UniProtKB/TrEMBL annotation:
Gene Ontology biological process terms from the UniProt entry: cell division
UniProt cross-references to InterPro entries, sorted A to Z: SPOR-like_dom
Protein name: Sporulation and cell division repeat protein
UniProt KW keywords: Cell cycle, Cell division, Signal
SPOR domain mapped to chain residues: 64-146
Lineage: Bacteria, Pseudomonadati, Bacteroidota, Bacteroidia, Bacteroidales
Signal peptide stretch: 1-20
Length: 152
């Protein structure tokens, strides 16, 4: 009975992860010669329950899925104009050192934050955090759990 329970939990966890990332479902349904064909039949309400697609403001119409993940917090200040300027200055320095990294600067009352990246696993975030520290410019960095954007 315990094995059946563990199997059900494992299947549910895998199904939740797969459905949350629609691109995984689409990649499974791809027809690849020599590897067989997978067909997934699911109710449309399942996709509506797990992650929704949206177009972020100011983007070039790139669709993304929101998912649980990790970002690296590089700056946290207070609610002053100086903290705002510092948050944007840190964002600029991140882009200079790592142009491929997405940077998010926002005001979450009562403080300005500068966070970088969209990492699905804590290991990916940790590897990037070490690279940021290695530059010698970013010293007070930490990993935070947050909703991330996964491009489609």
């Amino acid at each position: 009975m315990k094995k059946l329970g563990l199997l059900l939990v494992a299947c549910f966890a895998f199904a939740t992860i797969s459905v949350a990332q629609n691109n995984i479902v689409k990649s499974l349904e791809r027809n690849v010669p020599g590897q067989g064909k997978v067909t997934i039949h699911q109710d449309a309400r399942i996709a509506a329950l797990i992650g929704s697609e949206y177009v972020p403001a100011g983007s070039d119409e790139q669709k993304v899925i929101k998912s649980s993940g990790y970002r690296i917090q590089v700056y946290a200040g207070n609610n002053t104009r100086q903290a705002k300027n510092e948050a944007y200055a840190v964002a600029t320095r991140i882009k200079e050192h790592f142009p491929e990294l997405t940077v998010y600067t926002s005001f979450n009352p009562p403080r300005w934050l500068c966070r970088a990246g969209d990492f699905r696993s804590i290991e990916e975030a940790d590897a990037m955090m070490r690279q940021l520290r290695a530059t010698g410019v970013f010293k007070e960095v930490s990993i935070v759990k947050e909703q991330i954007n996964i491009p489609l």
